[in-house]
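ok so i was messing around last nite and threw this chain in just to see what happens. nothing serious, just curious
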Amino acid sequence: WRRRWYFMWRLLIVALCSATGALRVGPRSLAHGAVRRAAAAVSVATDTGFGSAPMPDDLNLLETLLYDAVQREDYAAAAELRDRIGWLSGARGGDTDWRELGLPEWLSDWLGRLGYSWGTRVQVQALRGLTEISGGQTRHRDAAIVAPTGSGKTLAYLLPLLRRFSEDLLQEDLSRHLATAIDGGRTDRTATPDAMPRPVAMIVVPSRELGVQVSLLAYRLLGGSAGNPTLQPFSHPSRYQPGNAANMFTYSGPRRVKVAGLWDEQMLYAAAHQDLLKDVHLLVGTPEHLARVATSGNLRLHQLQALVIDEADVCLPMEATSQLMRRLEEACGAFAVPRPQLLLAGASISASHVEQAARRGWVQAPLLVSPTRVESCAAALLCRPDGELEQRVPSGAAHEYAVCERPEELLGTLCRLLRLLFTAPLAGEAAARPTPRVVVFAPSADAAVDTASRLQAALWSDIDGDATAGLWGLSVLLPSAEDTLTSRSVGEGEDATFAVLESSLRVMEMFRANQTSVLVTTAAATRGLDFPQVTHVINLGIVGSAADYVHRAGRVGRIGQRERGAVLSLLLPAEVPQLLQLGDELHFSPTPTAAPEPPPLAQLAAEGEGGGASFIAPSGDEESIAAEEVAKALEDIYSLYEGEGDDDGMAPPPGLP
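result:
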C-alpha cells in the first residue's frame, strides 16, 4: 500500500505540473539532484548576465555560466544556457547525468561531491562514443580526443578508463578484504587474491609538471586527498575545509588503487630498486622515462589494457615514444595478447599526427571525439577541404596587440602594463574587479629568467605579495630540463645579480594557490597545465605557430574561469602580419591597442632645474608627477633598458637625452 500511494502521488504531481505548464516533461534531463530541476525549468526570458545582448558561442564560457546559475538556484537561466549549449554542440536535450552515461554509482556520487555536477560536452561525447556494445561483445575504440584548451579533456579520457575498470577494481578490493578477514586480520602483500593484471592503464605526458597534475587528479578521483605536503610545503586556507562533502568517509569506491609516476631520475631509481611499480594500476610518465623502464624489463607492457598519449602533437614525434611503442608491440606479440586501446588527446592534434599513428599500426579505425560529435577520423578529414583537424581559440577571450618600435622597449612596456593592472584599477571598479592573475610568455627559458629578474627589481614596491611565498608576487616556471639549476646569474661584472629558481612543481602550486600573481614562463613549460582564474596572458615578442598560440591563449577562457580574459601580444612592427595571419587561421580577430607610453624624462632637466622634482605631464596639462614617480622611472631605465646602444650598455627609451 505504501508503494501504491507513492506512485499515485508521483503521477498526480506530474499530471498537475504538465497541465499547468510548470514542468516540461521529457525523456532526458540535465543532471541529477538540483540540476534536474534546472533542466525542467520553464523556458522564459531570463537574466543570464547578457541582458538584451546575444548569448556567446564559447562553450567554455557557457559551461561556466551554467555552473554559476545552478549554484545560485536560478534554474530558468540554467535551462536557457543548457539549451544554448545543446544547440551549439548539436545535442539538443542531451543527457549529461553521470549515471545515465554509464558511470558506476560510487564514481557518480564522488564526482558530485568533488564539484563535477555533470559532464562537459567533450566528456559526454567520450563516454558515449569510446565503448561499443554489439552482439553481447564490448569493443573499446581507439580515438583522438580533440577539444579546445580548458574544456575538460583530462577527465574525458580518465572517466572512460575508470568506468571500464571499475568492476574489476571493486572485485579486487573485496577479495583483499575477505582474504584479510579469513587470515585473522593479517594482510599478505605478496599474493593478492583475484588481482587484475597490472598495470592496467598508462598515460604518456610530455612534461613532469603535466604528469603531476594528471596523477593528482586521478588520485583525487580514486578517493585521495586534495592536498600534497610534498608539493605544498606551505599552508593556505583552501586546504582546510571542515565539513567538506568529499572526504574519506563519503568515498565508496575502490580503496587500494595505486597511481605512480615516472618523470625524473629519482622515480627511475625507485622503479629499479624500491619496487615503485609493484602493484601499480595506473602509471603516468614522460616518453623518455617510460621507454627506459620498458627497455629495462621492469614494466609488464603485455598486461596493459589502455594507453593514453596526452598532448599527442608533442609526444608522437619523439623518438622515445616510438621506442616505447616498439617495446609494447614486442611484448604483445611475445605473449600473444591483443594490443591495448589507444587514445590520443590534445587541443592541437593535426591530421598528420593521426595518420602517422595509423600508418605505424598504433591505432585502428580511430574515432574523432570533439565537443560536438563522435565520428570516424577518416570521414571527418574527408569532409574538410584542407584535410586538417580544425583548431580554434576560445572565442570569449579578447585578443589584442601592441607595437613596440625597438626590441629594447618590450620589457619596459610590459612593466608599465603590469603596473596598470595591479596598481591603477579603474574608478568605481576596485571592489568588483578581480585580482589580476597574469601569465607572461617569454621566447626561451633564458629570456624568462632574465625577464623575471628585471621585473622583480622594477616592481619591488608595486606588486604587493608575501615575500616568503615567492619573488614578491612574481615567479618563474621553466620546463623540467631547465629545472636542475637552482640559480642563474643575470648581467655581468659588478652589476650581476642572481635569480633564484624554485622547483617547477612548487612554482606551479604557488601560482595555482594564488601565492604569486605573475608567472613568467615558456609555452613548453605550461602545456596542458590548468591554472584557475587567469585574467591576462601576455606574449612578450613572440607569435609562433598556430599550435603554440592556441596553448598560450588557452590559459584564459577555461571552464570555471568567470572572467573571459585577455591575450595581449607585445610585438615589433614586422611581427604584426604574422599575428593577423594566425587570426585568420584560428578564427579570431586581433585588435590593435596603444601601449602605455614612458614618461618624457627629457623634460625633467628643463622643468626641474634648480632642484625641482617635477616635470610636465605628457598631455601638456599643468598637473605634475610626484618625485617618487620620477625616481621610479629612472629605476626602470636602470633595471629594464639594457642594450647595445651606448658606451655603458644602456639603450635609453625615447625622450631621454
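not much to say yet. Residues 153-182 form the longest helix (30 residues).
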